[in-house]
Amino acid sequence: MRILFISYFFPPDKAVGGHRASSITKVFVEEGINIALLTANQEISELEELKNYHNLSDIYQAKESQIRKIGYKTKILVGLELFNLDRLLFFPDLYFPWIRRALKVGEKALKELEIDAIMVTLPPYSAAVVGYKLSKKYDIPLIVDHRDPWTSNPTFTLPRFIVRKRHRKLESKITRHARINVAVGNECAQLLGDSSGVEKETFHIIPNGYFESNVPDKEVPKIEDKFTISYFGNYYKVHKPYFSEFVMGLKEMIDKNNLNPEQLAIRYAGLTSRTAIHRDLARGDLLPYFEDLGHLEGKTLIEEIQKSHLNFVFVPSSVEYALATKIYDYAVGNSHILIIGGKGEISDWCDVIEQKYSLVEGKADSITKVLDNLFKKWKNTELEYGCNKTKLTEYGRFNLAIKYANIVKKELK
């Protein structure tokens, strides 16, 4: 069996989409499914080490869209995004110029190779259009890997009714046409089903998972001399109100216990602007407690997670369907996870793997109470960490990719 795998992003891109695509290509080949890659990455064919690691021999490249690069350089795109006009002007997204080029290259691949199925991972949604059109024209089964909901995504704001209707029509057409639909979680599948009209039960669930190779050889001990609260990864506009409540709640807890920076630390690693973080922390006079870890990856990231007593995540109601990738790293890192927000995919998954966690609404007074309780438990060496490691191993990226490959082979035989 050979699949034409369409992934706009592909390593060395470090986005989650690139990581998911990486594990798919490597493992599928090992499971007897040959992969021909169609991507916008213009470098991959020249990087022999990456090609060998991902078991890639057939690589097809279509030049990427330049709209995002040019738009940000001229600052035009910033203005369009501010007023949500980018989705009004570009359909289905900023990458739409890639569709024509990718179709041409994709047809070349289909003529040169014997392809049994076409698989596309999205977003960007322009990639889905390429997969759909090739599948229809050549009557080849389509597999759609939905990493996010589309029109039902609560954070995906579409201007004007006619624009949303256009997107939903395209989403429904592609999802209904697919032989196999895969989602990253149950709630994600529910949203996709609601917007496309495809039964939720027909979606296969393959979470993102964690890289087994990132697990350190031995566990790093917790920091002993100060209560350490950490956040890893980016935080976005949707998180900002919760971060403000967290700052004020933590400030109250610090004042209540008369703590100084030698007794408590707020640690951060990620790409979010330090200016923005400093500004938010300054509102609660918390800058003296802040420790900047820079940007971390791989085992180094997991080791710093292991050192922390609390690793927190924001879960506003608009993103309760999502299982943030950092949660897998938190679980690998022997954490006590603090979920700030509501129940959803994250808390459900924590229950499945028996992860130690605390859940608190995104209000300052509630956050103060929970942090105070957790601090006292830490002082008394009663704070619990970790999860059921046996259950966690089911969510290794390569284990999940094997499961994925078996689904494909079963559904297409």
How can the largest sheet be summarized? 7 strands, parallel
The span between the termini is 9 Å
Average pLDDT works out at 90
**SSE string, helix = H, strand = E?**
EHEHEHHHHEHEHEHEEHEHEHEHEHEHHH
Strand content: 15-25%
**Which overall shape is indicated by the principal axes computed on the Cα atoms?**
globular
Helix percentage range: 40-55%
Derived from helix and strand composition plus strand pairing, the structural class reads alpha/beta
Strand order of the largest sheet: 3-2-1-4-5-6-7
DSSP, total strands: 13
Offer a few descriptive terms.
413 residues; alpha/beta; seven-stranded parallel sheet; six-stranded parallel sheet; 13 strands; 45% helix
Question: How does this model look, in words?
Answer:
With 413 residues, this protein is of the alpha/beta class. Helices cover 45% and strands 15% of the residues. The chain is built from 17 helices and 13 strands. It has helices spanning 16-30, 48-53, 67-74, 76-82, 86-89, 97-112, 125-138, 161-177, 186-196, 240-257, 274-282, 298-307, 325-332, 345-352, 364-379, 389-392, 397-412; strands spanning 2-6, 34-39, 58-61, 117-122, 142-146, 180-183, 204-205, 227-232, 264-269, 290-292, 310-315, 337-341, 357-360. The strands form 2 sheets. It has a 7-stranded parallel sheet, with helices on both faces. Strands 10-9-8-11-12-13 form a 6-stranded parallel sheet, with helices on both faces. Helix 1 crosses helix 17, helix 6 runs parallel beside helix 7 and helix 10 crosses helix 15 (364-379).
